[in-house]
Amino acid sequence: IRAGAPLFWEKHWRRLTSDAAKVGVVLAEYTEASVRQLLGDTLAAQGVSDGKARITFCDERPGIVWPGPQPEHRAGIHIIAGPLMPRPPRFRATVSPYSVNSQSPLAGVKSCNYMENILAGNEARSRGFTEAIRLNERGHVAGGTMSNVFWLVGGALFTPSLATGCLPGTTREFVLENLECSEVEAGIDELKTADAIYLTSA
User: What are phi and psi of 151, to 5 degrees?
Assistant: First the structure.
């Protein structure tokens, strides 16, 4: 977020509604305009003009695990905001020992289920690295623990295809829309011999 303008807002909203539908969270009572207003109110209340924000929808309907009376709202919303993370003086990446399951029903869905990503990131930092590249169960590069990955070979740009189980990030989408980039299934050796590697995140 820069000066109160959410970066790639339309892309974020489209992914929010699409992923909510995939996991069965009903957002019928929310509109893009109402959520955008709530986001603006949160940013103003916390004095954030150059930082980051997260919008989370939670299914509040009763279910098999937590039965109960029908709540007034089908989905709850939670918005948090804060300053940007500082850039490390030296950036080092490694390969994570924790693989991505490309066949998971949550593959490609942005959810609150970040535990595997957090554990992979913590494991990398315990070895002195900043970030880790995760491979899927077939040995194909899927992405970083909290980022999408691109690499350059002889002037050609590449990124993992969605078939690898990678998250379709909004910055990734922007790059694919504006640059010539091939979506591929590639092993880690492709990155080891690349001319440059880029990690992106909104």
Answer: -145, 155
Q: Which tokens sit at 41?
A: 């109110």
Q: The pTM is what? A: 0.85
Region at 193 (left for phi over 0; alpha for psi -120 to 50; beta for the rest) = alpha
Reading the block at residue 15, the tokens are 């992914």
Cα–Cα distance list, 42 to 39, 47, 51, 113 (Å): 5, 8, 12, 23
The answer to whether the CB of 25 falls within 8 A of the CB of 47 is no
Q: Are 80 and 54 in contact (CB under 8 A)?
A: yes
CB 91 within 8 A of CB 133: no
Residues near 110 by beta carbon (within 8 Å), at least 6 away in sequence: 15, 19, 167
- pLDDT tens readout for residues 123-148: 999 999 999 999 999 999 999 999 99
72-121 pLDDT tens trace: 668 999 999 999 888 888 999 999 999 999 999 889 998 888 899 999 99
